[in-house]
Amino acid sequence: MDIASFRALRTPSGQALLREAAEADVSEDGLLATASRLRERHDDPSLVAAALTQVRLRARARAKFGADADRMYFTQAGLEQSTRASVAAYRAARFADRLPGARVLELGCGIGADLIARARAGLIGEGVELDPLTAEVARANVAALGLDGLASVRAGDATKEDPAGFDAVFADPGRRTARGRVFDPRSYEPPFDVVLEMARQVPAACLKVAPGIPHEAVPDDAEAEWISVGGDVKEAALWLGGLAGDAGRRATLLSSDTHFPETEPLPETEPRVWTLTSSGAGEPDVRAWGRYLYEPDGAVIRAHLVGEVADLVGGGLADPRIAYVTSDELRPTPFASAYEIEDVLPFSVKRLRAELRRREVGVLTVKKRGSAVDVDRLRRDLGFGGRRAERGAEELTLVVTRVGRDPVALLTHPVAGA
Ligand SMILES: C[S@@+](CC[C@H](N)C(=O)[O-])C[C@H]1O[C@@H](n2cnc3c(N)ncnc32)[C@H](O)[C@@H]1O
């Protein structure tokens, strides 16, 4: 989609075409027929293509933006790189809490997901976006959601901006560039060291980074926060100046917002939020397997807060380098999933196959940590590849890990509600 087609899409006739396309069959099977039917009635094939692309992107965007997706506009890259609404709203609430009504400069605002969330939280935002089409899309999104008075978007190179006079800077630099996915923060676009330098020129800042950021790369004065949604780690954010808390490291878990049929609008409820902060728990004790295994949420692991979870559940680690906590007590916590350990065996495919047969296991879940085992291959070797053989009705979660050099297999069951 080019800028001319996007602009045409926003005219009254473009909007009528968009509505028509929204009612049509745009599935893989129906797309071609729909496109030729629409082209018969509308002269501009590039406008028809833009409308169909928009309808398909909106359908995909519902998982991130709920019902707003049907009023918003997207580019494929802009959608893929955008922050999901629940995470953006959570982050915006922190801005609103600490800097109510602040003026925030966003360096590389993409299609505007974070800008929109902050505007809804009452902050004044100016977004700068290098790609002219993406900037136009962000501007259209601000208007479509009725936030014109609170947020504005300019096309331009954010690294040339002067942040002086703003209360805060926000940046979510692109990590998928023309050269593919980049891991070195110096290769982010805009580059991380440039946005950090700009962030230092204002009283407060928040910089979104990849969750895999090495802890050594986190500036000493930043509070680093890892965020997961429904158990999947999505991102990390570095809070600086007046936005930084004193926790040092935080893991924040948002309840899942994506498990809805694609056709159903998401409920407009606030996500549920749990935050764990570093308490100086230090290294967890090393101990023998207890009655329960706790698998910490990925955000907890990334934030190096496994010791805090071990404290919460009164447990320790069977291997000091592997983030499986074990305890004799069942203490439900949002920060880890609990499994009751039925048996601990030395890892052996032959022995496991016999054991699963003896237990009449019909549904097997395999988890691993600290093991090089190929899970698909192991499932096949255990008789759980594809075709359902004559098996029993038992369900089992097999956890493959190691203690020191010894590979072990834990036969477990998830504890309901824990
Ligand atoms: C990860 S995206 C931002 C997504 C945004 N937070 C959202 O949720 O929609 C990063 C954006 O920075 C833009 N960008 C990269 N270099 C830039 C620069 N020097 N100046 C302005 N924008 C830039 C990219 O075009 C991209 O749209």
Structural category: alpha/beta
What Rg, in angstroms, do the CA atoms define? 25 Å
Number of strands: 18
Q: What hetero molecules are bound to the protein chains?
A: S-adenosylmethionine
CATH superfamily annotation of the largest domain: Vaccinia Virus protein VP39
Our estimate of the beta-strand percent is: 25-35%
What is the topology?
Elements: H1 3-9, H2 12-23, H3 31-41, H4 45-65, H5 76-81, H6 85-98, E1 103-107, H7 113-120, E2 124-129, H8 132-144, E3 151-155, E4 168-171, E5 176-177, E6 180-181, H9 192-199, E7 204-209, E8 223-229, E9 232-241, E10 249-254, E11 273-277, E12 292-296, H10 298-302, H11 306-313, E13 316-317, E14 325-327, E15 336-346, H12 349-358, E16 361-368, H13 375-381, E17 394-403, E18 406-414
Parallel strand pairs: 1-2, 1-4, 2-3, 4-7, 8-10, 16-17
Antiparallel strand pairs: 5-6, 7-9, 8-9, 10-11, 12-14, 12-15, 13-14, 15-18, 17-18
Helix pairs in contact: 1-4, 2-4, 3-4, 6-7
The protein binds S-adenosylmethionine (SAM).
Question: What does this entry show, briefly?
Answer:
With 418 residues, this protein is α/β, with parallel strands linked by helices. It has three domains: 3-71; 79-274, Rossmann fold, CATH 3.40.50.150; 278-414. The chain is 31% helix and 25% strand.
Structure commentary:
This protein has 418 residues and is of the alpha/beta class. The chain has 3 domains: 3-71; 79-274, Vaccinia Virus protein VP39 (Rossmann fold), CATH 3.40.50.150; 278-414. Helices cover 31% and strands 25% of the residues. The chain has helices at 3-9, 12-23, 31-41, 45-65, 76-81, 85-98, 113-120, 132-144, 192-199, 298-302, 306-313, 349-358, 375-381, and strands spanning 103-107, 124-129, 151-155, 168-171, 176-177, 180-181, 204-209, 223-229, 232-241, 249-254, 273-277, 292-296, 316-317, 325-327, 336-346, 361-368, 394-403, 406-414. The protein has a 9-stranded mixed sheet, with helices on both faces. The protein is globular. The chain starts with a helix and ends with a strand. The structure holds S-adenosylmethionine. S-adenosylmethionine (SAM) is lined by residues 81-83, 108-114, 128-131, 134, 157-159, 172-174, 189-190.
